[in-house]
Write a structure and sequence with these properties.
By secondary structure, the protein is α/β, with parallel strands linked by helices. It has twelve helices and six strands.
């Protein structure tokens, strides 16, 4: 069975904003659903990467422990050899000192005596050093091996005490991508797009007697005075034209706390916003010899419906009832009038 659906022009304005936001963050997407898919894929990559990285670090810790054990054993062997070498050197120095001490001063061998005396002092100093500070000499000869061992111990200590930090560091690129995507998914643009798409989905239940225009930009030739200020242009979430009339629709996907803050501030409410859009559409049509009444609807997709203001003549509906509300009203426009109005706005999306 064939079901006719509303004729639709344009894409959700909030969804377009999310696409731009995503591209600035380095993601090339065409619709809102891709953010969710990318975020799920990135989270899965992170989970898998985290498990693999933990295993890698565990293996590295085991390797470091083995290398440290091997290095310590090698150092012990080296130390034994160095101690033997020091003892040999000490014996040689003693013999040398003994030989040098028997050299007597003779004027004819003055230079030889001077050199022998200097050599004797050096040998005695060296022997004294080896006898009184053997550990310093051992450490000096094992300097590079000890340095390598300390480096291995530092690496081991860091990995054992900062495993989680190291995992996050090694997965920093994935974490950064995930944070960017979560930032987009938690943004006002994303929430707005979710709301607008829910409204569009419901409005698609209208028949093809209706025309749905999304993200409509209206601009007048000149500024007009409105409610004490001047107005020239407006961006409207949705316009619906059909047998039952012309509707300006604004979508609000708000939490309770945000709704309260907007109305407590009292400077610019959704009623003010849609009233401006409604009047601008009316004046645009009037300027084009198509004067027609325009109805205002605020569609709520969030957790809180804004407080009612009966003086504003604005209908407030849940997104689940918008199509039903529009199509159940009395017809006031002919097919020709619907087409004429729709054609006037279709190039504004």
């Amino acid at each position: 069975m064939y079901f006719s659906v509303v004729i639709q022009y344009g894409k959700s304005g909030a969804e377009k904003s999310v696409i731009i936001l995503a591209k600035r963050a380095g993601f090339s997407i065409e619709n809102l659903n891709e953010i969710d898919l990318l975020l799920d894929e990135t989270k899965e990559q992170y989970r898998e990467g985290k498990s693999i990285t933990y295993d890698q670090i565990t293996l590295e810790i085991d390797d470091l422990k083995r290398n440290i054990d091997t290095s310590e054993k090698t150092l012990e062997v080296q130390k034994s050899q160095i101690v033997e070498d020091i003892e040999s050197e000490k014996e040689i120095l003693r013999e040398e000192i003994e030989d040098l001490q028997v050299i007597k001063f003779e004027i004819r061998h003055l230079l030889k005596y001077i050199f022998s005396t200097l050599k004797l002092r050096r040998s005695m100093k060296r022997l004294n050093h080896l006898e009184t500070e053997p550990d310093i000499e051992i450490n000096k000869r094992q300097k590079y091996s000890l340095s390598s061992l300390e480096s291995l111990k530092r690496q081991l200590n860091y990995l054992e005490n900062n495993t989680e930090k190291e995992v996050e560091s090694r997965l920093s690129n994935i974490v950064m991508q995930m944070n960017k995507l979560e930032g987009i998914a938690n943004s006002n643009e994303y929430k707005g797009a979710v709301g607008e798409l829910a409204v569009i989905q419901n409005l698609c239940e209208l028949s093809d007697d209706y025309c749905l225009l999304n993200d409509v930009y209206i601009e007048l030739r000149d500024y007009i005075k409105f409610d004490g200020s001047y107005l020239k242009s407006a961006q409207i979430d949705h316009l619906v034209v059909g047998p039952t009339g012309l509707y300006v629709i604004e979508t609000k996907n708000w939490s309770g706390s945000y709704t309260e803050s907007v109305f407590n501030d009292g400077t610019y409410t959704p009623y003010d916003q849609i009233k401006r859009g409604n009047y601008l559409v009316y004046r645009y049509l009037k300027n084009n010899n198509l004067a027609h009444s325009v109805e205002s609807i605020i569609v709520v997709t969030g957790s809180r419906i804004p407080p009612c203001d009966n003086n504003r003549h604005t209908k407030v509906l849940s997104h689940n009832y918008i199509a039903r509300y529009i199509c159940n009203r009395d017809p006031i426009l002919t097919d020709a009038a619907v087409n004429k109005l729709a054609n006037k706005f279709r190039y504004k999306v």
